[in-house]
Amino acid sequence: METASLTSLARAGGCAAKYAAGRLETVLAGLVPAEAEDLLVGLDPADDAAVYRLDDDRAIVFTVDFFPPLVDDPRTFGAIAATNALNDVFAMGGAPLLALSIAAFPEELPTEMLGDILAGADERVRAAGAILAGGHTIRDDEPKYGLAVVGTVHPDAVWAIAGARPGDVLFLTKPLGTGIVLQAVRDGVAPPGALDAAISSMVELNQVAADALRPFEPSAVTDVTGFGLLGHAHELASRSGARVILDARALPALPGALELVLDGVRTGGDRRNREYAEPHVENYADVALEALAYDPQTAGGLLVSIPAERAAVLEATFVAEGVLARRIGRVEPGSGVVLAG
Description:
Phosphoribosyl-aminoimidazole Synthetase, Chain A, domain 2, seven-stranded mixed β-sheet
C-alpha cells in the first residue's frame, strides 16, 4: 500500500493555513488583556511573541507556531516549521533558549516519517543555539507540526512592532513569494528551481540578520509571515500611529514568483490577506507586485524600521554578513499603507 504524501493530507500548508487576520482580531477583541507590571508584551498590542520581565536584566520571550505540511519531504517540513517558530523570538530581539514540539499526526502514516519531521526541527533548533527538550503529540487526520519556544532578551532591548517613527527607513531581509511558489507546486506549474529557492529561504533562520541589526537599535521590527507584507506593514503602521510607504518596485521576489502571479497563481491566503489589509492600503502598483505584497509568507524575513541616518551603515553591515537587506520604503506622519508603483 502506497503511503500518502504529506501535502495531500493538508487543506492548506505553512502560514497560508493561518486563521484569517480579520477574524482573529474579532476574537481577540473579546478578551480582556492581562494587566501585570512585568508583562512587557501581551495582547495589547499583540506582537510576534509575548515578553515577560524576570528582573532588571532578564526577560523571557514566549511564542508558539505550528501548521500543516507545505512540502512532502518530512525532514524539510520539520525544518521549515521550526524555523518559522524560532524566527518569532529573533523578531523580538531575543535569543531562543528552549523549544517543545507540538505535533498532530495520522496513525496510518509510518512512524519514521514523524521521526524525520522531529529530526529536521531538531537540527534548526540546535542551529539557533537552543534545545529541543520534549513536546506533545496527538492523533489527527491532518498532519501538523510546530514549536513552542522560550527565549531571553534584555527588558530594555525588546523589539516591538509599535515603535516605527516618521523619518524611519524600512528594510526587508528575505525575498517574497513562498506562498505563490508552493501553490504552483501544488498546481504542477512551478518552474525548475523555484521550489528549491523557496525552501532555502524558508529554512534560513533570521538569527544572522537579527544579530547584525541589534547594535542599530531599530525603532520597530516584525517578521513577515502569513498575513503577507501588506498585512504586517498595516499592523506596523496602525500600532505605531504612522503611515508606511512601500516601493513596490524595490520588493525582492523569489525566482519565478512574479511570472507565476501573471499566470494566475494565487493562494487562499491572498484573498484573506486582502480582506484584512486592503481597506487600509492605497495601491499604485501593478497586479504582479500587488499580489507579491499580499502573498502569505512562511518563515519570512524581518521587516525593520530604523532611523534614516543609520540606514547606510546598516546596509553595509548586512552586506558584510551576507544577509539580504533590501530598502523597501519609509515611514511618514499619518496612517495607513501606500504601495507605490
